[in-house]
Specification:
This protein is mainly alpha-helical and 130 residues long. It has one domain (2-129). The protein has helices at residues 2-15, 28-39, 47-50, 64-73, 78-92, 99-111, 116-124. The chain is globular, with a radius of gyration of 15 Å.
Length: 130
């Protein structure tokens, strides 16, 4: 475990320009998302900021999980989404609050009515107009 922490910290420091500290998470998806937001002038310092879909850049990696949920979980009823999202986030996050991020994902899915085309349109909308 110590080697993983050392190697992952070194990799993040040398190859990723993330605003998230490695002590917060070692998840590369989160750090790449933070890096992308930072490069595009979007909030990048916390997971909750990164997953604020009203401010996320259209090319951000944070949109990918929403497409996954639409494509693979649409047959489930709406009430199951929050719990399914939280479960997925728990598997991606070493520690920390997942409820707020799950709620932000669910809010974005509701705005788009769980429709892929509407999500794509919402994603491409200027964050100042979301």
């Amino acid at each position: 475990m110590k080697d993983y922490k050392i190697l992952s910290s070194r990799y993040l420091e040398e190859h990723v320009d993330s605003a998230l500290p490695a002590s917060k998470t070692r998840n590369l998806h989160y750090h790449r998302s933070s890096e992308y937001h930072k490069q595009h002038g979007a909030p990048a310092d916390t997971l909750e900021e990164i997953y604020d879909y009203t401010r996320a850049p259209s090319g951000s990696p944070v949109w990918e999980p929403l497409y996954y949920f639409i494509e693979h979980d649409l047959e489930n009823i709406l009430e199951d989404y929050s719990e399914r999202i939280r479960d997925a986030l728990r598997s991606w996050t070493e520690r920390g609050e997942t409820q707020n991020i799950a709620n932000q994902m669910l809010d974005a899915l509701r705005v788009c009515e769980f429709d892929r085309a509407q999500l794509k349109e919402y994603q491409q909308t200027d964050p100042d107009l979301r």
